[in-house]
Amino acid sequence: MAGNFADTMTAVKPSYPLLTSRLILRPFESGDLDDLLAYMSPPEVSRYLYTEPLADRAAAKENLGRKMGAIQAENEGDAIFLAVYLPEAERVIGDVMFYYTSRGHRQGEIGFVFHPEFQGRGFATEAARVVLEIGFQGLQLHRMVARCDARNLASARVMERLGMTREAHLVENEFVKGEWTDEFVYAIRRGEWEASAQPVMA
Ligand SMILES: CC(C)(COP(=O)(O)OP(=O)(O)OC[C@H]1O[C@@H](n2cnc3c(N)ncnc32)[C@H](O)[C@@H]1OP(=O)(O)O)[C@@H](O)C(=O)NCCC(=O)NCCS
Predict the structure, then answer these.
(1) Which residue's alpha carbon is at the smallest distance from atom 15 of ligand 1?
(2) Which residues form ligand 1's pocket by a CB distance below 6 Å?
(3) pLDDT in tens, 40-72
(4) Number of structural domains, the chain?
(5) SS in 3 state form for 145-182?
(6) Per residue in 66-101, pLDDT tens?
(7) Is residue 121 part of a domain?
(8) 3-class DSSP state for residue 56?
(9) What is the CATH number of the domain that holds 119?
């Protein structure tokens, strides 16, 4: 694990690819366009996201372009998007996100999106554990959060499997896709992560 991060405590550029027992996490490549479109176009995937389903390859190209450049976290506001490649399927099945929310307060945020065909097998949890390692090991963060629509129970379950605690149920705090929505805020602090986390990287 120690070799995975060229860390300076306030900036992190992981040494890609990052390997778990079943997955390869790496920066997005131009050849990932069709895989990205496949998991970002089903309506059920974006049901509880702020974004709409990707309509076509042009939209996927724009989305891919933004994700391709997001590979390190140096400054507050930086994001890392990692393609989650499943060797047994020979395709990218989803992505995980790290967002460097505060340098001064040592805080970060995580997110995840997976293809419906590849849900229910623990891949999101396995990949998200890597993102927690990026934050806690690479950046030495103090606390990481994840947020989801309160109806997004699959997402909330992932956060709980990660050892995160539901700290807030915000009631109708956002107006998303034409309706007032509730939001769950989950968090895990560094000490909790150190006490419970099993190494996830091969
Ligand atoms: C949120 C999302 C990533 C969760 O995906 P998921 O496949 O349910 O999550 P995991 O990969 O952790 O899989 C967990 C499920 O696999 C099962 N599972 C099977 N093998 C497993 C294993 N080896 N390890 C862990 N879980 C395993 C678990 O029992 C669990 O099923 P359950 O929820 O019915 O109890 C997915 O629903 C999604 O992409 N949704 C659309 C995008 C979205 O809303 N993202 C979140 C925005 S906040």
Answers:
(1) 120
(2) 45, 48-49, 111-114, 119-125, 148, 152, 154-155, 157-158, 161
(3) 999 999 999 999 999 999 999 999 999 999 999
(4) 1
(5) EEEEECCCHHHHHHHHHCCCEEEEEEEEEEEECCEEEE
(6) 999 999 999 999 999 999 999 999 999 999 999 999
(7) yes
(8) coil
(9) 3.40.630.30
Q: pTM for the complete prediction? A: 0.95
CA–centroid distance, 154 to ligand 1, in Å, is: 6
Q: 3-state class of 188 per DSSP? A: strand
CA of 48 to the centre of ligand 1 (A): 15
9: helix, coil or strand? coil
Cα(143)–Cα(175) distance, integer angstroms:
27
Is beta strand 79-86 parallel, antiparallel or unpaired with respect to 91-102?
antiparallel
Task: Tell me which of 47, 112, 117, 153 to substitute to probe ligand 1's pocket, judged by most ligand atoms within 8 Å of the beta carbon.
Answer: 112
Domain that holds residue 134: 2-143
Q: Which residues make Cβ contacts (< 8 Å) with residue 137, sequence separation at least 6?
A: 1, 4, 5, 7
Write out the two tokens for 176: 């998303």
